[in-house]
Amino acid sequence: MYYRPQDGHGLPHNPFNALITPRPIGWISTRDAQGNDNLSPYSFFNGAAYVPPQVMFSSTGSKEDVGDTKDNVANIRETGVFCVNVCELAKKDAMNASSATLPRGTDEFVKAGVDKADCHEIACARVADAPASLECRMTQIIKLEGKSNFVVLGEVVGIHLRDDCIVDGKFDATTYIPLSRMGYRDYTAVHEVFELIRPDD
């Protein structure tokens, strides 16, 4: 099968997201200028650079009470900061609950029953018991082709690691089982890892 996206795929469901898998989930927390906290998951998320450490996430779609985007991007425009919380399998239901479309200013931490803690370097809440949280200062918001598509890039200025996730001096993802997004409504969990050594190492 071959198709051009502009012509349509002819399938019952769009296969695009199912082709780029698994995708890590950036559970993004922000705070607006009035002090209201927000928490939402994004599966278009990843690391972007090592030195200085940088991350990115993409937001698609918009809300009538925000304008051309959604709450988190609007909040980052106002404050210039955000936090990426690593999502574990044990929090899958809370993560899913935080994805609900709610009125601007609603605290998804409360709605989803997620404990929050203050960040150290930025004025923002974080998921208190996340395996890791990355405090970020926004460096760029880039408008992409299409309506309401934005990429947010940020420099990581503070990192929280949960103590039980550090094993023999390494952050061990198998201690908490990372949750990842597949296509459609599907998710997966990382239960097994293996090591490969690069030829030039």
Number of domains: 1
Helix content: 10-25%
Indicate the radius of gyration in whole angstroms.
Answer: 17 Å
Can you tell me the residue ranges where pLDDT is under 50 for at least 5 consecutive residues? Answer: none
Shape: globular
Strand order of the largest sheet: 3-2-6-9-10-5-4
Question: Which structural class is indicated by helix and strand composition?
Answer: mainly beta
Q: How many E strands?
A: 14
**Which second-level CATH architecture applies?**
Roll
Number of helices: 4
Query: Under the CATH scheme, which class?
Result: Mainly Beta
Mean pLDDT: 96
Q: Encode the helix/strand succession as letters.
A: HEEEEEHEHHEEEEEEEE
What distance lies between the first and last C-alpha atoms, to the nearest angstrom? Answer: 39 Å
Query: Beta-strand level of the residues, as a percent range?
Result: 35-45%
Could you give a short account of the major beta sheet? 7 strands, antiparallel
CATH topology: Pnp Oxidase, Chain A
CATH level 4 superfamily: Electron Transport, Fmn-binding Protein, Chain A
Protein name: Flavin reductase family protein
Domain Flavin reductase like: 18-173
Pfam family, one: Flavin_Reduct
GO molecular function, one term: oxidoreductase activity, acting on the CH-NH group of donors, NAD or NADP as acceptor
